[in-house]
Amino acid sequence: MLWLVSLVPIVAGALIATLGARSRTSLGVLAGGVVSVTLILTVLAVVQGWSATLTWSDAIRLTAALTPLSAALAVTVPVIALAVISHATQHEARQGLARLTGLMIVFAGGMQLVVIANDLLTLLIGWELIGACSWALISHKWTDKENPQSGLYAFVMTRFGDLGLFVAAMALFAGTGSFDYASIATLSGPWQGLVAYGILLSAASKAGQVPFAPWLFRAMAGPTSVSALLHAATLVAAGAYIIARLEPFLSVVPGWQAVTIAIGLTTALAGGLTAVLQNHSKRLLAASTSAQLGFMFIAVGAGYPGVAILHLMLHATFKAPLFLIAGAAHDATGSYRLDRMRLGRVMPLIAGLAVIAAASLAGLPLTGGGWSKEEIVRAAEHTSFWLAFSVMIGGGLSAVYATRFALLAFGRSHKEGRDIPAPGWKETVGIASLVTLTLAASLLWVSPAATVLANALGATLPEGTMAGLVISMIWLAAGLVTGFYLAHQSPALGRTGASAAASDWLGLPTLIDRGVVQPVDALARAAAQADDRLLDAGLNATAAFADALSQLADRFGEAASDGLPEGTANIFGLLGRDSRRLQTGLSHHYYAYIIGGIFVVAAILAAGA
Fold this sequence. Notes:
The protein is mostly helical. The protein has helices at residues 4-17, 24-48, 68-91, 97-116, 120-138, 146-176, 189-206, 215-218, 224-232, 235-245, 247-250, 256-277, 281-301, 305-333, 348-362, 368-381, 385-410, 425-440, 447-457, 466-489, 497-503, 508-581, 587-608; strands spanning 52-55, 61-64.
């Protein structure tokens, strides 16, 4: 039965994608119905403890099961998808809307398969499905040739990381004869390292961690609804989820926790700084996603996977509406440039929703995002003070870019009288429902609510120090002040000069291009040239041999082909003429032939005797 949680949206989404032109209302009803059924099935699966097994052979089987952590995320995915996909049916361009809607539903179904998977083979199937869907969704507006190129870039970048999961699956099977997660615990030696670090590599690429982070910028070529789903509850979430899900098996591998923390911390700081320098609203939010996922990696590396999943769930509630809001601002101004927005007076309701979501992104006290961020700080304190201090700096950067986004996108305009229509209620309801979840998460600051949620997830909440909380609040306040200053004094930050170069992931795409892409391309060109030379040499030798053969045939072949039939004809002509000489018509000649023949026969018989 648990397979239905994934199969229903995958099959139904694929059918919806083939419908062609349909009204927004009908698509909204269909999509909402499918995702709602998925949510109901998921809740039933959690409550009744569903599991599933599909046996291919004695050695290979697909399994699905729910742990407290996976159950929480399995419910989160359709909740977020319902709001985002419903918004997409009312907001995105009509051309190809059914295809877009269907693929987004399949995308959510693929993520459900990743979440319920209980072995690496099942995980790989879901992992590949969400990768393929991300490529198709980023390339949705394929008539603009840059979009398919961006989709391909993102696909190749994440596919490179996916090699780690393939290596992990093969190593696990080679070492244990099974793909089950539980069998990871029985590994030792090189197999154990291959599985642990292979999974980490794949998770880092999906989650947009350094050095894979630049693909998230290219993913911004897709519609804003796709960005909201991708950054909140599907593709990038898969990376953080899988290391949290498997942390008990992986954390025992030497160095794994330290490497996980290093990846997360590097990305949290680099992503935060990149977001601060961004003037493109969607890219700012994309960089912030990498940074927030970096915090989750730190929590997992510090030994608190439950805290990582809590932050992942809360991050989905405020990041999805922020992307949808960025799309509304783009429609109003025709640009994603933050310095051209300031839509607070013309979109007061959207502006209010944006402020609430941005406050949670900034990590303000009494917001859900603020609560989970402080839990990550406490988790880091259990590893070292300096790690916690670095997370606090990352939190300060979050406050800077969240403040910049809110003030530049929805601050008070200096231009009066702009006639810009606000989004209709059908577009706004999805955003409002997600922000309502963000507001509800504020209850987590009340200790009993946090304890109940943590117990439901089987998560341990770390204890922190008052000194750590005070220092964290100081960094938060510094971030808010800096964000306010940059929004008013440098609204076009990141448009020109050194800040523009740094805003593109601090030059990482250029480094990847020069250090990886160009050398590989040069190697491919050299191989092509060598191949051409070898191929040309072979063709030339074949042509020379054929030419020599044809000249030989021209010299001797004609004489042989003409001489054989002509010689045969001459011989038979000669024999015919000689045979005619025997036909003289004289009887005594014939008697002589007969007598001669008798002597010949007698001689043969005598010889035989």
